[in-house]
Amino acid sequence: MDDITNALFAASRQGNVPVLKEIFSHLKDLDIKDERGFTPLIIAAYNNQPEAVTALLDAGANINMPDNSGNTALMGACFKGYENVAQVLINRNANLNAQHGNGGTALMFAAMFGRNELVDLLIESGAHTTLTDARGMTAADLAQQQGNSVAVAKLQQLTA
């Protein structure tokens, strides 16, 4: 990667919005990927940088661009438990039901890792609760497997 691309990834990771805005005047492809397939938006989301997420989206970053495994910025925010970042992405119309290479969704990540405030947010925002992953498991099944009884109860109530 060249210096400006390295600076883009570093500013996204650190949430340095002034540097991001300067980079936007020199670099138009904001969906560039690093060696793992992460975009600057995914990096910002995964590092709990809601202001950087907003700046990247305002500058034209693709909200649903997946990494090499099919994970999106919303999936990363739900995996890590970053409600503020997830809210920004949801408000900007991120695909709530995108599925990665094994069929996992943002709701599945939230349910599996006990991010119950995100389970609520995703459900309230319209995430589908009955999608299945490559093993045929729903978010409720994954929550059950991980002992997240709160999410199990919420998800089963919706599918009953």
TrEMBL record:
The record's section on InterPro entries has: Ankyrin_rpt, Ankyrin_rpt-contain_sf
What is the top-level taxon of the source organism?
A: Bacteria
Keyword Repeat present in the record's keywords: the answer is yes
Task: Read off the Gene3D superfamilies from this record.
Answer: Ankyrin repeat-containing domain
SUPFAM superfamilies reported for this sequence: Ankyrin repeat (SSF48403)
What UniProt keywords are attached to this protein's entry?
A: ANK repeat, Repeat
Q: Where are the ANK repeats?
A: 36-68, 69-101, 102-134
What name appears for this protein in its UniProt entry? Ankyrin
Lineage of this protein's species? Bacteria, Pseudomonadati, Bacteroidota, Flavobacteriia, Flavobacteriales
